[in-house]
Amino acid sequence: MSKTLIRGAKVLGGEPQDVLIDGETITQVGAGLSAEGAEVVEAGGKVLLPGLVDLHTHLREPGREDSETVLTGTRAAASGGYTNVFAMANTFPVADTAGVVEQVWRLGQESGYCDVQPIGAVTVGLEGQKLAELGAMHESAAGVTVFSDDGKCVHDAVIMRRALEYVKAFDGVVAQHAQEPRLTEGAQMNEGVVSAELGLGGWPAVAEESVIARDVLLADHVGSRVHICHLSTAGSVEIVRWAKSRGIRVTAEVTPHHLLLTDELVRSYNPVYKVNPPLRTERDVLALREALADGTIDIVATDHAPHPHEDKDCEWAAAAMGMVGLETALSVVQETMVDTGLLDWAGVADRMSFTPARIGRAEGHGRPVSAGEPANLTLVDTAYRGPVDPAGFASRSRNTPYEGRELPGRVTHTWLRGKATLVDGKLT
Ligand SMILES: [Zn+2]
């Protein structure tokens, strides 16, 4: 069994300590640990976090391997400090059967870079008509716990109610992409001042908020858990805050891009800023940051959405929606939440590892950095600051909105069950 001593790391941003990994497990955490028989990683005051967990990743395999595969996506994940990702179901074929989720799960196991937990579709073919085989997917080798039609909204209230009732039996969760379809027909960007000036079809906040309001009430009625994907408006925050105050079992995520970018960027007509839900206003961004800090929003999830350049390098109206995010998420969170004083590193560990692991029930992930725990860890050089260079991405796609933008923080090492997947910023 191999031993690694991480020397002088600020565990969750605290005082520097040594962390000894033996095989797959953390065996000691303390000051001045013996390096005998161990490979030494000099942390030099870098921050050590539990391996990050992403509840919302698009790995695109099967079906769109030109944009990402499970292998390239999990390499991107390891580069970004992740040790576990949940793979969304909108693949081709759709992950709506035990067969497809098992295929994705197996590919994740083979990749060796990051654990992959498939998300199962709520409805057959994401068509919103008929419930998929939720029970069979849960009982498969993939052990699906999270179900979502992400990319599409489960808009039929009866189907949503049945899904919530069904997953309650095994404490699963339905993750809703909240988008009222009729209110967003022809939508190209956030509905507001900028869309009016540019003459682009608007995606109004109420199309998100009305679905969230309905779904928290349904979850309350059924006594089940609902998770809201990529919350993007100040009004959505208010609804989730109200629901939590009533004891309703709702959790919510925000993406890094909704914490940093606004719809003003759409004035450039650069499709790299086209995303669903759309970039909102400065007021929304500030409300989202505040809600993530006070726990109204539970977690950060990337909504990593790789697209090949031909689907993004075209005119605005024709471009695909979505951005890659796995390799820049932690930097954006440092920029928007840590360097602004809204969240400390223990808070980041909570929002990007402990809580997403708990919502998705990712076993062995989101655990404390202490003796006896699986060695799923990420080491971050928080003093670093530099421009984002997509040429260095491990993802197969390059559709990042941060190209050339200076961001803080750089993940230098990632360990998956004691095995280094990233060393000095390079994948192993
Ligand atoms: Zn979505």
From TrEMBL:
Q: Does the keyword Transport apply?
A: no
Q: Which residues form the Dihydroorotase catalytic domain?
A: 45-233
The chemistry this enzyme catalyses reads: (S)-dihydroorotate + H2O = N-carbamoyl-L-aspartate + H(+)
Kindly tell me the pathway this chain contributes to: Pyrimidine metabolism; UMP biosynthesis via de novo pathway; (S)-dihydroorotate from bicarbonate: step 3/3
Write out the entry's keywords from A to Z: Hydrolase, Metal-binding, Pyrimidine biosynthesis, Zinc
Give the source's domain of life in one word. Bacteria
- List the PROSITE patterns hit by this protein, alphabetically: DIHYDROOROTASE_2 (PS00483)
Quote the cofactor binding remark. Binds 2 Zn(2+) ions per subunit.
Which residues of the sequence carry a binding annotation for substrate? 58-60, 90, 276, 307
| Cofactor(s) needed | Zn(2+)
Q: What is its EC number?
A: 3.5.2.3
Q: Which Pfam families match?
A: DHOase
Q: Where does Zn(2+) 1 bind?
A: 56, 58, 150, 303
Group of enzyme by EC: hydrolase
Give the active-site positions.
Answer: 303
Q: Which family does it belong to?
A: Belongs to the metallo-dependent hydrolases superfamily. DHOase family. Class I DHOase subfamily.
This chain's function reads: Catalyzes the reversible cyclization of carbamoyl aspartate to dihydroorotate.
What is this protein identified as? Answer: Dihydroorotase
Please report the organism this UniProt entry assigns to the protein. Answer: Streptomyces erythrogriseus
Per the record, the gene is pyrC
